[in-house]
Specification:
Number of strands: 13
Structural class: alpha/beta
Number of helices: 10
Helix content: 10-25%
Radius of gyration: 20 Å
Strand order of the largest sheet: 9-8-7-6-5-4-3-10-11
Amino acid sequence: MREFSMDLGRICLEEKADLTYLYVEISNRCNLNCKMCFKQSWKDEEGDMDYGLFMKILDDTAEFPDLRMIYFGGIGEPLVHPAFMDMVREVRKRGISVGVSTNGSLVTDQVISEFIDLQVDLVYFSMDVIPMMPTEVGHVISENTVNRLKRFKEMKIARDSDLPHIGVESVITKENSRQIADLAGFLTEFEIQALIFSNLLPSSDTFSDLIAYDGSVDLSEELHKVYLKSCEDRGFLLKLPEFTLRTERHCDFVEKKTAIVRWDGKVAPCYRFLHTYPEIIFGRKKQVTAHTFGDLSRSSLKEIWTSRDYLWFRYVVSHSLYPSCTDCSLMDACAYVQDTEMDCWSNMPSCGDCLWSRKIVLCPIPVAAFGKFR
């Protein structure tokens, strides 16, 4: 039990090994160069996770009885790691569910075959536009992704397998906002289990005018069409973002008891604090600084998860004990909004401008058509 002093008393937080989802960024390298990705704006060192470190992480997960899934995700493309399939095999040997986030470009028929053999639970493809209707900032090879979706469907049918569940993640911009219903309808033929739309979070002024949540675009009719498409199919889960600021704030990473291990072994609480990069929040530049709570080369995952600082961070975020910088009347004269180092309530790091918590940008939390992953 860890105790924290408050103005009106004390708060006692139990040191529970209740981690539910573990994201592992086995590489922050990527074989693509998508213009909208904030990877293009950072200066972080690139690298692949050491195999010995990965095995140590797997050993550490034995202390978490409620762990549901290890998800190969981060900011890079996991399939660029030379030992990717070996890592997937090791996770499945331990009876842990596996999820994968990929751009699809390296998913060969052999990879699909192994995913089916290993009963990988969930594979999410990033696909931002319909191939026949390309836009300026989307992924550059969506046509290849379509081909991979076709092959997954064909090979799963041929081998009478329900797994992997297939999901698609897509980012809405002004450029493609009129295509999202077409994309939803287009994807129904591939028998996907989940479709997640998020919003663009620009990391440079070049793309700040492309956000679809600044009030300049009326998407009500288009969103209604998307809902109808999902209802017609009934087989896939649909998640849509907000397009205006709401009072409530929720962090999926915290509330679903999720942590992310960066390629170098550092443990971050969410995607936002995984790396250092600039954000453009409604035209206002903000510097996001990577924030981690420990290093797995020096500590166990349980020690980091139950550490005083990490426990308090999760408590603060889950109870919204931080300012709302995004709609604060003082933000134009406040130095705290310039970066994520600290907020005016003395929280470190600052979540005050987080558009993920407002559901404008959606976290890639593992979800599928079945309650097992919700």
